[in-house]
Specification:
About 70% of the residues lie in helices and about 5% in strands. By secondary structure, the protein is mostly helical. The chain starts with about 40 loop residues before the first helix and ends in a 7-residue tail after the last helix.
C-alpha cells in the first residue's frame, strides 16, 4: 500500500524532518494564490455554509462560558463544561475516524450538522424559558462532543474530496481562516446579545445557523467530488491506524506536540473569562473583545499560511515555541492594553502552528488512512481538554489567572523545544551555529556531512 511521502518509519539519512517541505501530491504542485481553493464550486458551497455556522458556534461558545460563570461564579465550572464537550473525543475519537474512513462523507456530514443544530436549539429553549441549570449545560456539552467525534474527522477528510490533493494545503488554511473570521463577528455579537437580551438568543441563532451547511451540502455536485478509496469493514482497523502512525516519526511527533498544546495551551475560555472578570473587573463585552483580538491574529495567521505552497517542520516548532512564550508574556502583563495587544500575535502563532500541523499530517497520510489519522490528530488536540481544562481551571481558581495562563504557556514552550530536538535527532541532524561576523545564523546539517568536514585530510603520499 502506498503511504505517500515518508513511507518509511524513519527519514532517509540525508532527509531533514525540520526543513524538508511536506510532500506535494502526485497530482501536481499546489496552485499559487491565497484563495485558489475557492475556484472549486463544491468547496465554495462548503465554505459559505461553514462561515455562517461557525459564526453561530462562536456566539454559542461565548454565551455558554458566560452563562456557566453567571450560574456558578466558578472558573472550574467553565473548565468542566469545556472538558465535557471534548471528553467524547478523548474516549471515542478513534472510532469516529473508522466511521469516517468507511462511510460516504457528504451524507455523514448532513447527519452530524443536523444533530449539532438540534443541540443548539435545545439549549436555546431551556435558556429562553428560564429553566436552564448548570447540569443542563453539562449534558448538552457532552452531547455536542459525541456528535463532534464523527463530525470532526469527517470534515477534515472531506476537504481532499472537494479540492483534491493539489489544493489541500490551501483549503486547510482557508478553513482555519473561515473559522477564525467567524470568531471576529461571533464574540462581538454574543457580547451585545448577552448584555441586551440574554444568552438564550445567541443559542437560538447558533441552532438555526446549521441550516446553511446543510443547504450547501445538498447543492454540491457529487460527480465533481474526487474519488477517494474507502476502507472496507474489517477487524483491527483501530490498531492498524495506531501502528501506522507509531511507525512514522513525521506523524507521531507533530501529533504529540499538538496534544500538549491542545491540552495545556488552548484553554482560552478559562483564562480570558477569569482575566475579564477577576483581573480587569469587566463584563461580557470585554471578554468578547479579547476573543475578537485573538481572532484578528488567527485570521492573519491563516491567510499567511494560505499563501504558502509548502511548509516546513521547523515552522511548526518555531510557531509552537513563540505561542508558548507569548502566553507567558501576556500572563505577566501589568496593564489591560498590553494584555489585549498580545492577543493578536498569540492568535497569529496559534493558527500558524495549527494549520502547519494539520496540513503536514494530512499530506503525509495515505488517503485510506486519513480519517483514522485525523481522528487521532483531533483526539489529542481537543480530547486532551478534559484533562487540561479542569486542571487549568483549578490552578486559575487557586493561584489566580496569571499563574494559570503562564503555566499553559510554559508547558507549550517546553513541549516545542523537546519535540524539536527529537525531530532533529530522528533526522540524523546536528544544530550548527555560525557566529562569524556577517554570517551569524543557526542551521541543521546532517551528522554524516559534519563528521566528514571534521575528519582530518589524508596525509600526502
Amino acid at each position: 500500500m502506498s503511504t505517500g511521502p515518508g513511507t518509511h518509519s524513519a527519514p532517509a539519512p540525508d532527509a531533514d524532518p525540520v526543513t524538508t517541505p511536506a510532500g506535494d501530491a502526485a497530482a501536481g504542485r499546489p496552485r499559487g494564490g491565497t484563495f485558489s481553493s475557492l475556484r472549486v464550486r463544491n468547496y465554495r458551497l462548503f465554505a459559505t455554509g461553514a462561515v455562517i455556522s461557525n459564526t453561530g458556534t462562536w456566539m454559542s461558545r461565548i454565551a455558554q462560558d458566560w452563562l456557566v460563570l453567571s450560574l456558578t461564579g466558578s472558573s472550574t465550572a467553565v473548565g468542566i463544561t469545556t472538558a465535557l464537550q471534548f471528553l467524547p473525543m478523548l474516549l471515542f475519537g478513534l472510532y469516529g475516524g473508522v466511521i469516517a474512513d468507511r462511510c460516504p462523507k457528504r451524507g455523514l456530514l448532513m447527519l452530524t450538522q443536523g444533530a449539532l443544530g438540534l443541540c443548539g436549539l435545545a439549549l436555546a429553549a431551556l435558556t429562553l424559558s428560564g429553566q436552564v441549570q448548570v447540569w443542563h449545560v453539562y449534558v448538552i456539552a457532552f452531547l455536542l462532543g459525541m456528535v463532534t467525534v464523527v463530525d470532526n474527522p469527517t470534515r477534515q477528510a472531506f476537504v481532499v474530496e472537494m479540492v483534491g490533493p493539489r489544493d489541500l494545503r490551501n483549503a486547510v488554511s482557508l478553513n482555519s481562516a473561515n473559522f477564525q473570521s467567524a470568531r471576529l463577528v461571533g464574540p462581538a455579537v454574543a457580547g451585545v446579545l448577552i448584555t441586551a437580551v440574554g444568552s438564550g438568543w445567541a443559542f437560538l441563532l447558533n441552532g438555526l445557523s446549521f441550516g446553511a451547511p446543510l443547504i450547501g451540502l445538498l447543492m454540491m455536485r457529487p460527480g465533481e467530488l474526487h474519488k477517494v478509496e474507502r476502507a472496507p469493514r474489517g477487524k483491527g482497523q483501530l490498531r492498524e491506524g495506531l501502528r501506522y502512525v507509531a511507525g512514522r516519526p513525521d506523524l507521531i511527533w507533530p501529533i504529540v506536540l499538538v496534544g500538549f498544546i491542545g491540552t495545556f495551551g488552548f484553554n482560552f475560555p478559562i483564562w480570558l473569562s477569569a482575566f475579564a472578570d477577576g483581573v480587569f473587573h469587566a463584563g461580557p463585552g470585554t471578554y468578547g473583545l479579547l476573543n475578537t483580538l485573538i481572532a484578528v491574529g488567527s485570521v492573519t495567521g491563516a491567510l499567511l499560511a494560505a499563501r504558502r505552497t509548502s511548509t516546513r517542520q521547523r515552522l511548526l516548532i518555531g510557531a509552537a515555541l513563540m505561542f508558548g512564550l507569548l502566553e507567558i508574556a501576556a500572563a505577566l502583563s501589568p496593564a489591560f492594553w498590553l494584555f489585549a495587544a498580545l492577543m493578536v500575535p498569540i492568535g497569529i502563532f496559534s493558527l500558524t502552528f495549527n494549520v502547519t500541523a494539520n496540513s503536514n499530517v494530512q499530506l503525509a497520510t495515505d488517503p485510506a488512512m486519513r480519517g483514522r489519522v485525523m481522528s487521532l490528530f483531533m483526539m489529542v488536540f481537543v480530547g486532551g481538554t478534559p484533562l487540561g481544562g479542569p486542571l487549568v481551571g483549578w490552578l486559575t481558581d487557586t493561584y489566580g489567572a496569571r499563574v494559570g495562563f503562564a503555566a499553559g504557556g510554559l508547558v507549550s514552550a517546553a513541549a516545542a523545544v523537546a519535540v524539536g530536538l527529537i525531530l532533529v535527532r530522528a533526522g540524523g541532524l546536528r544544530v550548527k551555529v555560525d557566529l562569524r561576523p556577517g554570517r551569524r545564523h543557526l542551521t541543521f546539517v546532517p551528522r554524516a556531512a559534519e563528521d566528514a568536514q571534521d575528519k582530518p585530510l589524508p596525509a600526502a603520499a
